[in-house]
Amino acid sequence: MAGQEEFSRVVVPHEIVNDAEVTVVRLLARAGAPVRRGQAVAEIETSKSVIEVMAPVDGYFFPLVEGGKRLVIGATLGVVSPDTRFDPGSLAAPRPDPAVGSAAITEPARRLIAQHCLDPSLFAGLELVRKADVEAYLDGRAGAGAGLDQGAEAPLFVHQGFAPDRTTGAKTDVLILGARGHGAVIIDILHRDPAVHLLGLADANPARLGSEVAGGYKVIALQSEVLDRFDPTRVALFIAVGDNRVRLEVAETFAAVGYRFVNAIDPTAKVALGVRLGTGVAIMPQAVVGARASIGDHAIINTNSSIDHDCVVGRAAHIAPGATLGGTVRVGERTLVGIGCAINKGIGIGRDVSIASGFTLYRNVTDGQTLTPKLGRLWW
């Protein structure tokens, strides 16, 4: 196709780095060396750890920088070409690359993002992220506690825009979208939430209309009827769809017409001080979310999983039952970390990754990879 690049860029991954800049420690492949997708081609150093950067495709690696070079997040540090005759001199100096989906971020905004342990992908869709954009995002999160007395302890159940009224005891009407297994689990959490009046469920399948899902709660509407029947200024939603990509698509569709979302946090879950939660988040029984972790919108932190300090879990990601994330792990949008996985400290996992049950990760995983057992091997 005319104008399309005939190579793949190797970039400083914004999904797993909170710093504004990193240092290239060393290159792990020489110029022109054959590499395989997922092979480490460089090491970069952040303020917390040294991280491997992986080749996005099979081909021949050509670095654009040397060890010791300082790069901003999103910068191109090399390319992988299908042709051994590729000329690196044909490319401009490393710069933030819009092809990786990361917006340009001003330096004050980068500092504020790092200070609050935010995932830069929260600002996807903006051509330029300014300090004011980050401040507006933080102000919106602070609004979740509006109406609390100064010095009072925040209640366990606080939803963005839907803080419980301590004076009147008024509750928020909530409709669950999705009437399969995940919906049943969310019923069990939300029906005990003192800030929620659970109306029932809606589903895209007409065959489920009128059926009981759990605890006497029924499918009372089709998904296509929700906007006509439930006023978005009076009714909040929870998207109970197991598929990560579909869950995010449904959420964005309803957010675009004015709906807001509640969080479903089981009372047996442990959410530490300083944790930043998005909206539409599910935190299941006995899950633990450690200090200063950040959980993106519509993520699932499933039963008995453990998210250690300073982790970032991206939008619509799913940390499956019994999975453990060590400190400072970064998980990209729509990624599945399977049942019982163990992710070592500082590891970065890209977007749209699927990791089979029981894996132990010792190195980074790039966007779009699927890790499945090979000859009984369950480590990476």
What descriptive keywords fit this protein?
5 helices; Rossmann fold; six-stranded parallel β-sheet; 380 residues; alpha/beta; OB fold (Dihydrolipoamide Acetyltransferase, E2P); 33 strands; 4 domains; elongated; seven-stranded parallel β-sheet; single chain
Descriptive overview:
It is a single chain. The chain is α/β, with parallel strands linked by helices and 380 residues long. It folds into 4 domains: 9-81 and 95-100, Beta Barrel (OB fold (Dihydrolipoamide Acetyltransferase, E2P)), CATH 2.40.50; 111-143, no CATH class; 167-255, Rossmann fold (3-Layer(aba) Sandwich); 266-380, UDP N-Acetylglucosamine Acyltransferase, domain 1 (3 Solenoid). It is 12% helix and 28% strand. It is built from 5 helices and 33 strands. The chain has helices at residues 107-115, 131-142, 181-190, 226-229, 244-255, and strands at residues 8-11, 21-27, 33-35, 40-45, 50-54, 59-63, 70-72, 76-81, 104-105, 128-129, 172-177, 196-203, 212-214, 217-222, 235-239, 264-265, 270-271, 276-277, 282-283, 288-289, 294-295, 300-301, 306-307, 312-313, 318-319, 324-325, 330-331, 336-337, 342-343, 348-349, 354-355, 360-361, 370-371. A 7-stranded parallel beta sheet has the order 16-19-22-25-28-31-33, covered by helices on one side. It has a 6-stranded parallel beta sheet with strand order 17-20-23-26-29-32, with no helix packed on it. It has a 5-stranded mixed beta sheet with strand order 13-14-12-11-15. Helix 1 runs parallel beside helix 2. The protein is elongated and about 65 Å long. Mean pLDDT is 80; it is low at 92-103 and 140-167.
